[in-house]
Write a sequence for this structure.
């Protein structure tokens, strides 16, 4: 097993992205602030992007699908953050707080 | 568009006409329905005559035939993909049931003459319900049978829920849910039959030889599915509550006709397609039916409310129907079919009278009423005639049916031991004494003795429509009671195939 | 050779006329005109009487007195086809027994109709009374002429129903309502036995048709009397399963016992006195109660084939005879006394049937002879009692007295009937009772002694009424201003009194039986029989006419036993206890409770369970994003582990 | 035995994991965002090692330059930065840790046990090839995805404005 650590190959990078993903997951569950949750999601997306790129680098001969997929991830992440922030601002203007655990009714 | 389709869809057309008539002509609703159902009765008579003509020619052949022979058949394909057809026809038994339903709906409409609360919708729903019932009695395609079966059951919820009395929502909900559970079993059975038999057409399925292990589980499914509607013992609890809160015409139609769908279905579908299954399960359902009979009559003794009193008595009489069927003996099955007819008329009479009495005294509590005979002699006498018919006095149709079931029960069938069969029949016969006890106790408390409540002094006797309703029903009771050979001849031809298949 | 005359060919009129008059009076004449209703009903019954007598003369002309008296069925139509050899027919069967019964019923019924025109005058339910009386006569005639056992059962039930309506005629009186209910339910219980008997009998008989030995009888049905009484069938049945045949016969006897109020099922007859007196006269004296005896008589050859059944009939009859006579001596209500005396006389008829057997038919002959004579003088006694009550307005014999001068005609007719029932020689009662005692002597000495003792008791309690009501001085003002009833009530009394004397001399034996009967009754028998009767009269004379203290001394002598007997051995109370406490409280109430709380509750509980499980599941939807995502992830992981565990 | 590149990889990995932990544990949201920026930067570095130079640029420009800045704006607008995130009770934390650790275990198990055929020639990640691949409509290309993404971004653009617009009652409240 130690060989994975010695010369970091595909498995190493995948393990790295999984660790990052789990940390993001942990963050997702413990955050109460809406923006905090969004940040953890960004972290998870980033971890996924790493695994894509590492696949592209190690397991693909002369093809760039992995990298293109990472670009799409970044685009989608951007879209998500924009909408997320717009909604949070709207919520904040109404409820004066962004605490997720208190937001369990659709309409006030 | 043969006469049968007219008979089935005439009530539906009437319902539409009633719905379309504007509210300004509210008084017309009753007349439209009355004339319409009256016309229906006449048409049923014509249909019976047409049936007799074509049946006369092969009356003898019926004795040995293995398959039901249909008359006045109409057959069109409906869903070609699953070879489901609009296949309707009629044999002796269905004609008897059609006559019964036609009489009951005609008297039912007359009995709800002075109903004020939203009569338009009431009559419309009533007629839709009866269309379903007519459909069931003539349809010989299992899918069509099930569709009409559902159409017959569903309007009950609204009819009881909106126009009922007492805890009507509870009863309506309970009734519909239990009947739905029953029809769920039915659907499972029908689908099993379709997958095994390959078609929905009852006559074709008759030729198909169903494997034994399949019969063993589908027959009880169908029997219990139909049994729930036929007030089989553990599943009968919906009928007392349902009838107690249903309005007059609805409980007339329900107890009089809808509960007969159960018995009819058992015979037509379950016993026709699964003779070996019937033999296999014969004894268990026979015991259940005996409990039904004895249990129903004993429970009726202690009832305080007139409608519960009649509901339990009809549970006991429906038990007779299932008992007759479960004996798998020709005479008993014929008795069961006659009992379907005679009990239908009897309960129709009972519930219409209860409606009339309730309309006057505003109470259905037996102890608080008394001495009504002096005030309303016509209703009193008709109640007594109904009571005597229900306890099986000869010269009334009750005796014809019950004597058949007892004689048939005693003769038994080659597969069950003679002793157990005769013991069970003796037990069922004992119920005629208990019926006598509760009928006379109930009627004596209500009609005889001094008038207990001074308010009852000024009550009026039957009006013209009420006299017409009770008159028709009592005439039918006497007619079948005094000339049973006519009814027997009508039914006998169609029963032989069922027995020959065992 | 069916060269029947006018009467026999359209014998079916005897059923049609009462039916038509029942419908016409009931629906059309009754509500409109009371007077016409009474007259119309009575004339229709007189016409039936004429028909009955005409048919008898015609029958005798065809088959003269001494010769063979075959059973003929001039008219029958198919009524209820159960199966091929199991069809119930509606018909008229003519043979000496049914002719005898037809004559008795129509005569007594016409007398009662005539009597009740006067008696029921001014009663609000006047036309209703005549309608139901017509219905009763119709059903009684139908029962008597039945060619098969099922038709007999049909009219048997109709008789029960019409007696229910007649007993409960004064339906405003609570006691009348209770009495009518009790009568109908008790007889209904007995009819259950009767029906079970029919079912077993017809089941066994039906299976004989399959044997080829009975091919020649295949034209019959399993229900017909001719078939059941056919000698071949009888020994086939008794050899096949003797015990079952006896069981069926005992069941049939239970049915007969219910209708003829034999011992265990007698409780309804004394209460049936609640009905109007003409009803008691017709139904509870002459006709309905006799139906049980007629049933046993009709199936006599079959009964003869099983010893046990005959013994049951004998001993139940004998016990009822003694039992009722003892109670009759202690009753104070005149109609109750007559009711118990009817019970006792019926016991006589039953025991005489019991002692008879197909070989020596004396018992069979005697019972039907007594049936005829009893019908006439008992009807007369009841009608007489009716006119007394009508005059004195009370049933209690201690309030009557000195009516000899005030009601001369009633007095004479009542006296003649009392002498007849006491069995004093010139009157009819003596002849029939003497024959019964002769039959009993030959076969069953114990029963003979009982019969003798009861003869004395009968004379005692009959003359007890006679002396208390007619002799001595009026004991109440009602008795003082008593005046004779109207003429329409007196004619039947006179006619019946003549009949109760003449009927004894009727050449019964030659009419009734085909072949002459060997008589070996000892010469001392008639003397002993009439002697015991006279002894009873003497005792009654001493007790009640001479105003001696013997009556009270005997009463105190018996002490508490007297009160027990007076209350009819508390059997009514036992029945009431059984029905109300046992059946209602321990069977009906629990079943109603079980239905409400267990069977119904299970349905409600299933609904409750679904509701509760819904509530529990609701808790998962918290609206908190963390829980949702946690659930989501955990679901995925669990699936992963499962697949891992399964090893793809 | 360790060449400079693997050492560098180790360094980047450790930094990214540590800052990731920071992102998740910091109570103050501002600190958490800055930690996130750190992670993204390190990832950009990683892309370089994995021969995806263009992506490094995109990452830095779009992801850090755009998205993180936007998050910071949102934090400023909603004043989340000043107040502390209220504490989540410990048993929830433990549960969250347990679940994510379980996830980690499962996925490492999956990764380690699935033999993926690796090729060591490395990709020629020239921008020109990337562009051709992106817009290649011959069937293996991603032109459709490209069009959809542009549509998505347009919709998001308009949507965000509409959603974030001050509503009437908020204006005159």
């Amino acid at each position: 097993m130690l060989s994975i650590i010695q010369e970091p190959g595909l498995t190493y990078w995948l393990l790295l992205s999984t660790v990052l993903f789990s940390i993001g997951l942990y963050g997702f569950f413990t955050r109460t602030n809406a923006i905090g949750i969004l940040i953890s999601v960004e972290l998870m997306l980033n971890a996924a992007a790493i695994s894509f790129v590492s696949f592209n680098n190690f397991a693909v001969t002369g093809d760039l699908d992995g990298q293109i997929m990472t670009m799409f991830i970044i685009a989608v992440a951007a879209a998500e953050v924009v909408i997320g922030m717009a909604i949070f601002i709207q919520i904040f203007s109404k409820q004066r707080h962004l605490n997720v655990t208190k937001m369990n009714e659709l309409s006030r | 568009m043969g006469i049968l389709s007219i008979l089935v869809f005439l009530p539906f057309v009437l319902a539409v006409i009633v719905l379309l008539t504007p509210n300004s002509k509210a008084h017309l609703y009753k007349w439209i329905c009355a004339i319409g159902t009256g016309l229906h009765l006449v048409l049923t008579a014509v249909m019976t005559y047409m049936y007799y003509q074509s049946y006369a020619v092969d009356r003898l052949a019926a004795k040995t035939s293995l398959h039901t022979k249909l008359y006045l058949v109409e057959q069109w394909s409906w869903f070609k993909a699953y070879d489901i057809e609009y296949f309707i026809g009629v044999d002796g038994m269905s004609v008897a049931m059609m006559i019964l339903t036609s009489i009951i709906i005609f008297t039912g409409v007359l009995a709800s003459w002075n109903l004020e609360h939203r009569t338009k919708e009431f009559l419309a729903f009533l007629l839709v319900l009866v269309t379903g019932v007519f459909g069931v009695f003539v349809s010989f395609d299992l899918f069509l049978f099930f569709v009409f079966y559902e159409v017959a059951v569903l309007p009950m919820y609204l009819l009881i829920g909106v126009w009922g009395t007492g805890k009507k929502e509870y009863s309506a909900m309970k009734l519909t849910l239990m009947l739905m559970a029953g029809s769920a079993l039915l659907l499972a059975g029908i689908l099993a039959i379709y997958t095994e038999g390959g078609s929905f057409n009852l006559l074709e399925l008759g030729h198909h030889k169903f494997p034994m292990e399949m019969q063993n589980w589908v027959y009880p499914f169908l029997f219990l599915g139909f049994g729930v509607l036929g007030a089989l013992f553990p599943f009968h609890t919906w009928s007392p509550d349902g009838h107690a809160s249903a309005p007059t015409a609805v409980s007339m139609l329900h107890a009089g006709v809808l509960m007969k769908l159960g018995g009819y279905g058992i015979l037509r579908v379950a016993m026709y397609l699964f003779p070996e299954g019937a033999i296999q399960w014969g004894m268990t359902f026979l015991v259940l039916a005996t409990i039904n009979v004895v249990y129903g009559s004993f429970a009726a003794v202690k009832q305080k409310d007139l409608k519960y009193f009649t509901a339990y008595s009809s549970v006991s009489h429906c038990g007779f129907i299932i008992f007759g069927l479960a004996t798998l003996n020709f005479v008993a099955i014929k008795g069961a079919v006659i009992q379907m007819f005679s009990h239908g008329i009897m309960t129709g009479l009972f519930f219409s009278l209860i409606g009339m009495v309730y309309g006057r005294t505003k109470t259905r509590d037996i102890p608080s009423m008394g001495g009504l005979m002096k005030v309303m002699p016509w209703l009193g006498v008709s109640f007594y005639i109904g009571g005597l018919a229900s306890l099986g006095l000869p010269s009334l149709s009750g005796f014809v049916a019950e004597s058949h079931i007892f004689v048939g029960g005693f003769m038994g069938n080659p597969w069950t031991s003679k002793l157990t069969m005769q013991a069970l029949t003796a037990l069922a016969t004992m119920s005629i004494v208990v019926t006598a006890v509760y009928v006379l106790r109930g009627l004596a408390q209500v009609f005889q003795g001094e008038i207990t409540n001074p308010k009852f002094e000024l009550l009026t006797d039957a009006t013209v429509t009420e006299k017409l309703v009770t008159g028709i029903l009592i005439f039918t009771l006497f007619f079948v009671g005094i000339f049973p050979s006519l009814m027997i001849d009508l039914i006998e031809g169609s029963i032989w195939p069922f027995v020959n298949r065992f | 050779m069916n060269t029947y005359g006018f009467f026999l060919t359209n014998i079916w009129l005897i059923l049609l006329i009462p039916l038509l008059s029942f419908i016409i009076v009931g629906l059309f004449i009754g509500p409109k005109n009371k007077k016409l209703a009474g007259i119309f009903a009575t004339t229709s019954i007189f016409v039936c009487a004429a028909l009955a007598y005409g048919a008898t003369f015609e029958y005798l002309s065809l088959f003269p007195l001494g010769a063979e008296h075959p059973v003929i069925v001039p008219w029958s139509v198919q009524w209820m086809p159960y199966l091929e050899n199991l069809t119930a027919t509606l018909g008229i069967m003519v043979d000496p027994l049914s002719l005898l019964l037809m004559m008795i019923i129509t005569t007594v019924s016409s007398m009662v109709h005539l009597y009740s025109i006067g008696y029921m005058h001014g009663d609000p339910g006047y036309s209703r009374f005549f309608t139901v009386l017509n219905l009763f006569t119709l059903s009684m005639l139908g029962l008597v002429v039945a060619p098969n056992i099922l038709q007999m059962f049909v009219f048997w039930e109709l008789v029960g129903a019409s007696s229910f309506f007649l007993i409960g005629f004064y339906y405003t009186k609570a006691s009348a309502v209770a009495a009518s209910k009790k009568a109908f339910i008790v007889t209904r219980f007995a009819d259950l036995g009767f029906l079970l008997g029919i079912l077993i009998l017809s089941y066994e008989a039906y299976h004989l048709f399959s044997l080829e030995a009975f091919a020649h009888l295949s034209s019959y049905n399993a229900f017909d009397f001719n078939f059941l009484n056919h000698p071949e069938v009888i020994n086939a049945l008794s050899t096949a399963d003797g015990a079952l045949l006896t069981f069926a016969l005992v069941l049939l006897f239970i049915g007969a016992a219910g209708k003829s109020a034999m011992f265990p099922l007698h409780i309804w007859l004394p209460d049936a006195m609640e009905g109007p007196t003409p009803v008691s006269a017709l139904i509870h004296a002459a006709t309905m109660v006799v139906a049980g005896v007629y049933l046993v008589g009709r199936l006599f050859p079959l009964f003869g084939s099983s010893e046990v059944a005959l013994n049951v009939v004998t001993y139940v009859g004998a016990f009822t005879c003694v039992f009722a006579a003892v109670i009759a001596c202690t009753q104070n209500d005149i109609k109750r006394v007559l009711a118990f005396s009817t019970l006792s006389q019926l016991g006589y008829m039953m025991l005489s049937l019991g002692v008879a057997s197909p070989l020596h038919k004396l018992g069979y002959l005697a019972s039907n002879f007594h049936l005829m004579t009893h019908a006439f003088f008992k009807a007369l006694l009841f009608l007489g009692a009716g006119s007394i009550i009508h005059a004195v307005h009370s049933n209690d014999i201690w309030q009557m007295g000195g009516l000899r001068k005030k009601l001369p005609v009633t007095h004479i007719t009542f006296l003649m009937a009392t002498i007849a029932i006491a069995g004093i020689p010139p009157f009819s009662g003596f002849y029939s009772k003497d024959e019964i005692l002769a039959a009993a002597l030959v076969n069953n000495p114990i029963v003979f002694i009982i019969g003798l003792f009861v003869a004395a008791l009968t004379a005692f309690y009959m003359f007890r009424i006679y002396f208390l009501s007619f002799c001595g001085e009026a004991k109440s003002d009602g008795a003082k201003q008593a005046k004779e009833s109207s003429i329409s009530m007196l004619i039947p009394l006179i006619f019946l009194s003549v009949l109760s004397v003449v009927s004894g001399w009727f050449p019964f034996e030659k009419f009734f039986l085909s072949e002459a009967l060997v008589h070996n009754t000892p010469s001392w028998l008639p003397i002993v029989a009439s002697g015991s009767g006279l002894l009873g009269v003497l005792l009654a004379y001493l007790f009640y006419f001479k105003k001696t203290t013997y009556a009270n001394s005997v009463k105190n002598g018996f002490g508490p036993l007297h009160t027990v007997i007076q209350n009819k051995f508390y059997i009514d109370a036992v029945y009431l206890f059984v029905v109300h406490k046992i059946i209602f409280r321990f069977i009906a109430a629990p079943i109603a409770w079980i239905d409400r709380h267990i069977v119904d509750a299970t349905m409600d509980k299933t609904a409750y369970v679904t509701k509760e499980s819904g509530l529990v599941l609701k808790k998962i939807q918290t609206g908190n994003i963390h829980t949702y995502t946690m659930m989501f992830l955990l679901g995925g992981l669990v699936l992963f582990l499962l697949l891992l565990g399964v090893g793809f | 035995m360790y060449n400079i590149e693997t050492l560098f990889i180790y360094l980047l990995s450790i930094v990214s994991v540590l800052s990731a932990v920071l992102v998740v544990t910091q109570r103050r949201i501002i600190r958490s965002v800055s930690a996130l920026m750190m992670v993204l930067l390190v990832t950009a570095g990683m892309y370089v090692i994995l021969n995806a130079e263009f992506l490094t640029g995109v990452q830095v420009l779009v992801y850090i330059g755009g998205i993180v800045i936007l998050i910071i704006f949102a934090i400023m607008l909603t004043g989340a930065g000043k107040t502390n995130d209220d504490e989540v009770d410990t048993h929830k934390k433990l549960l969250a840790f347990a679940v994510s650790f379980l996830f980690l275990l499962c996925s490492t198990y999956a990764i380690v046990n699935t033999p993926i055929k690796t090729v060591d020639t490395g990709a020629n990640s020239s921008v020109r090839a990337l562009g051709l691949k992106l817009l290649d409509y011959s069937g293996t290309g991603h032109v459709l995805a490209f069009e959809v993404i542009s549509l998505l971004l347009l919709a998001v653009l308009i949507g965000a404005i509409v959603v974030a617009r001050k509503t009437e009652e908020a204006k005159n409240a």
Summary: Helices of chain A lie at 2-6, 10-30, 34-58, 65-95.
